[in-house]
Specification:
The complex is a heterodimer of chains A (about 325) and B (about 325). With about 325 residues, chain A is an alpha/beta fold. Chain A is built from twelve helices and nine strands. Chain B is an alpha/beta fold and about 325 residues long. The chains are: A alpha/beta (about 325), B alpha/beta (about 325).
């Protein structure tokens, strides 16, 4: 299999991909304010050792955390027309793109990878919030299409790690058209009888939630992730009142029936693995093997993490 | 029970900011007419004719050269014909259907059964309202999740009975509110888009005013998408874009220009099939003419799909949207 040749070595890549680690050695948690050593944080997959806050995770670290032995093959991000609108606000769109590319070392906000999750070949699409807010433009739309096609071609489950502010304004109505486009793409995965699992990470909003990120067969969220349609500021300006604590957080979505479960990052891989195995099992109607429930040692999803602000958000409905 | 629709009485003409000169000329004409009625002076009559011609030519020139921000204002013109105006002109036996069967009815997005040029259709669209009371009732055309869930319900029904779906797009965007978020605005829009794309009946959409973002696309993924000449279609409102990228909502004009929101831009990008010309001075100057013209375009579109079966219609629609933004953009 040729993709084995191009495997990323997990332990080494962490050292070479400097862009994803903070420049300074100590990192301050946005939630609790405690300092954590960067190596400890990386080892903890950017979950605060003190308060369990899930910080944003770059695509490489995410992919490593999901696949068997942290090994995967990157599918080249497709090319798409660049700056069709010749858009400029206070900066040119092309300059913003250049800056984002320099910052992340990636061509766009989307990374497609193929690898194995407890042996099951799986296609994973990750959005990088560091790249122009993970926004969905033509490259993004094309990435969803390509990843979905890959999943169908390899009869593999499709997992999306969503993180996005929404559609990319600099591509105007063409970015809006990526919503139906991505919708058709994920529908094809469903029609092929393959699972489409969405993991909503902080933050996922706008046109991304209003299309493919809310169409998963199963919706998982990381704790405390901000997930919604409209931005908080827009809502506040519209209704002219302050928003309740915990509004549009993962726990709020769980309460309102929009996600199936909230899963701690350290248990994400096991949870995904279990769901994939349950959904990809054939001969469901055949005779059982007589095994008993205690054979299952995989952790159950957590309902809500022990973060004070999240508790305050409970009952915000 | 919804009160029966009443066409609004002939409203006072509302002039937009850039129509100031036209307003002055037309005001003078009106004044002179009043004058001429009082004393029969042929010189006054001549002057009226001269000024009328001048106003007409200024109107024509102005509307031929509208910039994207001016078009945005025309698209939002309160006197512009709205969904219910199209329905009352084009649809016989209109039978509105209400409710998403889950939570509530949303009068920002209306729909129902009716007869269009002899055939049964499902028609739905955003309604902005025509006076203060109805604007509030229709929430200014900004739908909540219930609206999109009702749309899905009506699309299901259309497919069940093999009825073509006609959607009328006219919204600033889906409503951003606490309740809307609680009830899953994003999911509701996503499902509506998904259902619209999967329908095995013809779907025709016309953007008659504002095609505002996800709230518009949710019911606009059609086999044929049309836009009125001065309608707009955008990923975010110019004000919203300006406040994010310029940090100043007052830069809406710049944002409208940068985002290329006009029907002409959309046609150039290949995201719509055709532009429907408006009467000189915009749809609000001759609503009936506008609606009749739109009806003819819809009829032609339906006829063009008469030989296609459900699978073909669905396939063609999906392929069309899959190709958008893939190539050929200059």
């Amino acid at each position: 299999m040729n993709w084995l040749d191009k495997m990323t070595r997990p332990k080494l890549s962490g050292f070479f991909k400097k862009r994803e680690t903070p420049d300074n050695l100590w990192h301050k948690c946005r939630k609790c304010g405690e300092m954590a050593f960067h190596r400890d944080l990386a080892a903890a997959r950017y979950v605060c050792p003190n308060c369990d806050h899930h910080m944003r995770l770059g695509p490489d670290a995410r992919l490593e955390s999901v696949f068997d032995d942290g090994a995967f093959e990157i599918i080249k991000t497709p090319e798409a027309p660049v700056d069709p609108l010749k858009f400029r606000d206070e900066k040119k769109y092309t300059d913003r793109l250049k800056a984002a590319r320099a910052k992340t070392g990636a061509a766009d906000a989307f990374a497609i990878a193929v690898g194995r999750i407890t042996g099951q070949e799986t296609v994973v699409l990750v959005q990088n919030f560091e790249f122009m807010g993970g926004s969905l433009g033509m490259v993004g739309g094309e990435s969803v299409v390509r990843a979905a096609e890959k999943a169908v071609a390899r009869k593999a489950p499709f997992i999306l790690f969503a993180a996005s502010g929404g559609a990319r304004m600099q591509e105007g109505v063409l970015s809006l058209m990526q919503m139906p486009r991505a919708t058709v793409a994920v529908d094809r995965v469903k029609e092929a009888g393959l699972p489409y699992i969405v993991v909503l990470t902080d933050p996922t909003t706008g046109g991304v939630t209003a299309s493919y990120a809310m169409l998963g067969d199963i919706h998982i969220s990381e704790p405390d992730a901000h997930i919604g349609f409209a931005g908080a500021r827009v809502i506040e300006q519209t209704i002219r009142e302050k928003l309740p604590a915990g509004f549009q957080r993962a726990e709020f979505l769980l309460d309102h029936g929009m996600v199936d479960m909230i899963v701690h990052r350290h248990e994400m891989r096991d949870t995904l693995s279990r769901i994939i195995r349950l959904l990809m099992t054939k001969n469901t109607w055949g005779p059982g093997d007589g095994s008993s429930p205690e054979r299952s040692t995989l952790p159950v999803p957590i309902d809500a993490p022990a973060v004070p602000s999240v508790q305050a958000g409970k009952g915000a409905g | 029970m919804r009160p029966p629709y009443r066409a609004p009485a002939e409203p006072m003409r509302i002039y937009l900011e850039f129509e100031k000169q036209i307003a002055e000329l037309e005001g003078r004409v009106e004044e002179l007419r009043q004058h001429a009625r009082d004393d029969q002076d042929s010189n006054v009559e001549k002057e009226v004719l001269r000024l009328e011609a001048k106003a007409a030519s200024l109107l024509k020139d102005t509307y031929e050269k509208l910039d994207p921000w001016q078009k945005t204002q025309v698209a939002r013109h309160p006197g512009r014909p709205h969904f219910l105006d199209y329905v009352s002109e084009l649809i016989e036996d209109f039978t509105p259907l209400a409710g998403d069967r889950k939570f509530a009815d949303d009068e920002a997005l209306l729909g129902g059964l009716g007869r269009f040029k002899g055939r049964s259709v499902m028609v739905m669209g955003h309604e902005k309202g025509s006076d203060t009371e109805s604007r509030i009732r229709h929430n200014f055309g900004s739908a909540r999740p219930e609206g999109y869930r009702k749309a899905v319900r009506l699309m299901d029904l259309a497919e069940q009975f093999d009825l073509p779906v006609v959607t009328i797009i006219d919204t600033a965007g889906a409503y951003p509110g606490i309740g809307a978020e609680e009830r899953g605005q994003a999911e509701a829009i996503a499902r509506s888009t998904q259902r619209c794309l999967s329908l095995k009946v013809p779907v025709i959409s016309v953007v008659i005013g504002e095609g505002g973002s996800g709230g518009a696309i949710a019911i606009a993924t059609a086999n044929k998408v049309y836009m009125l000449e001065h309608a707009t279609y955008s990923v975010i409102s110019p004000e919203g874009c300006a406040s994010i990228l310029w940090n100043d909502p007052a830069k809406a004009k710049e944002a409208a220009i940068a985002m290329k929101v006009t029907a002409q831009d959309c046609a150039r990008f290949g995201i719509i099939d055709q532009i429907i010309d408006e009467p000189v001075g915009g749809a609000h100057r001759a609503p009936k003419q506008m609606i009749t013209e739109t009806g003819l375009v819809i009829e032609k579109a339906l006829q063009s799909m008469s030989n296609m079966d459900g699978a073909q219609l669905r396939h063609e629609r999906r392929e069309k949207f899959l190709a958008m933004g893939r190539e050929g953009l200059g």
